[in-house]
Fold:
Amino acid sequence: MADVARMAGVSVTTVSRSYNEPDAVSEKIRLRIAEAARSLAYVPNVMAGSLAAARSKTVAVVVPTLNNSVFALMLEELGGVLNRRGYQIMVSSSDYVLEREEELVKSLLSWSPAGIVLVGRHHSRGTLRLLVEDGLPVVEVGEYLEGAIDSNIGFSHRDVGRRIGRHFADLDIGRLGLALVALPGDHRAADRAVGFREAVHEAGLHLEEFALSERASSKGGATAFADLMGRPERPQAIFFSNDMLCLGALFEAGRLGIRVPDDVKLCGYGDFDFAATSSPSLSSVRPPDREIGRRAGELLLERFQGEGAPVSINLGFEHIVRASG
Structure:
């Protein structure tokens, strides 16, 4: 059956359903599967197929990385809600690569999960096709969007960038800096950067940028800070796309003898634990990661019971202003 699925470009679950629940699969897909089966001389085991078609008590989850407390907190809450009702989560990481996400989704669907949770709104065409064909409940989390695959819970990252840009503009700061991780698959960081640029442009302020093509780290933040502060148009405030970058900038400021917030103000994103306890404490943006996980779990449970309908929920975010500005 796996060979048929590969040749037809669908999941194993879809192949199984085409034999056991043909009305649940489009005629176009059924014909594609039938042609692949003929080519491979595949004869379905109807009994095994009917067993495989049953949904398991697992929920598949694909996140961009496991090396980020934002996703860890969301997973903890999601797993807790589902565990209490007898469901387990099966977690995989796409490493911010859409093609990798597609491979994972295809593999995870072969386990007949009851539902699937994906991060963000950017997916490959293959991933979208697999999910639409399978028809299981899907929740996209971490971003608020229109036109979701099924249901969506999150907030606008573009609004995050706008909020920070306007905050700095209100402080009568004329020269701003932006330091971001520019990984191809990190669309949420890119959206925050877009919003920040928009606010800076609207306020008529000067902007200096530094982009890192690697994972967020304190070392990367130190590199970005040293570069930005060494430019002729030295920023008076810098927005970092991640708190880890912001922490590295704070360390580098101390090494260079630059005072925070007197000489330069800093703001990160994520509100990691160290943001409140560093010296000076770091301003940040707190995403509703636990609330996203809880609401996603509750929404899936409703769908498993045949209740509710696809929804899009905007949970907003908190801008936490601390000593760093």
